[in-house]
Amino acid sequence: RFNFDKDCPIFDGLYEFSQISTGGSIAAAVKLNKQASEICINWGGGLHHAKKSEASGFCYVNDIVLGILELLKYHQRVLYIDIDVHHGDGVEEAFYITDRVMTVSFHKYGAFFPGTGDLRDIGAGKGKYYSVNVPLKEGMDDESYENIFVPIISKVMETFRPSAIVLQCGADSLTGDRLGCFNLTIRGHGKCVEFVKKYNLPLMLLGGGGYTIRNVSRVWTYETSLALGVELANELPCNDYYEYYGPDFKLHIRPSNMFNQNTPEYLNKIKIRLLENMRTLSHAPSVQVQAIPEDAINLEPEGEDETDKDERLPQKNLDQRIVPENEFSDSEDEGEGGRRDNCTYKERKRPRLENGTDGKDATNHEEIKEELKPGEDEKDNSKPNTVNDVINLVI
Question: Which residues form the active site (predicted)?
Fold first, then answer.
């Protein structure tokens, strides 16, 4: 009745899960449209198999399609890149006959789910040649992947000239995945993110497949650091799930000895065919000027005066709070190294203040002065000597 198959079971919380996954991608698109962020990440998204009226491949709602539709409200052309081991059939189907979205999918092709993504699937109507499929074989390694990814995406950027990019970073193309059959390392997978980021266009990074959980955590952590421009150490820090990453407890993984069936001749043949297809596109398509539709999600912060003081502020309000780089909290400027939690500071003893004031405020200056006994500061040098010292300690 609801078009669910064996690989899309119904479970408790299914609707809430779909709301969170899809809402994240739509909200990311709104932020990119408003230029509130340069890169937005939704690792819970990337469900590229779902169709308009069909759940497929563990995907119930296609957040990618809805996110791209939101981007199209502000951008004339959007590029979608898929590096999941499976073909992004749901996204390709949604934009198969339009020239405003170009879909590029690098995937395992053959007797492999979902069975689509042939080299000859190029789009139809106005969308002819705007669907780019790169069918690959088992054992794809870092070097071979880079040799075909870079020239194809370079030509796509030159020909299509998008103003926004959506990159689906499915982790099942990594080596050792339970369902995948590629041999990519985390560095090789991350090079795709690095290359796309260099174009300095609004970029949405999405999750997707990935069935060896410890490697999914590794690669998306690494690619988040690439988006932020932060270098991570290879040694994993101690955490509640540390034992999952044994026996090496490292961020990066080694490729297996799987044989790479993608010969240079095979990859070169695919590359030539796809580059010839793109040469037929004379110019980047454009769209007529029209009124911008209303945003799917309102990210404008509500006035804090209008919110209930007993409830936690909405996340969109908290996102608007910007702390200057030269502003520090009390806990950051204490002790050695600039951090209080280094535990290198010497804790000062606080005076014992008795609540014997018949309900009066114990922090009253005169009462604090009376509580301090004469000669007490001579016995312990850490005790306060003046009322001002007491006030500072209380504060």
Answer: 49
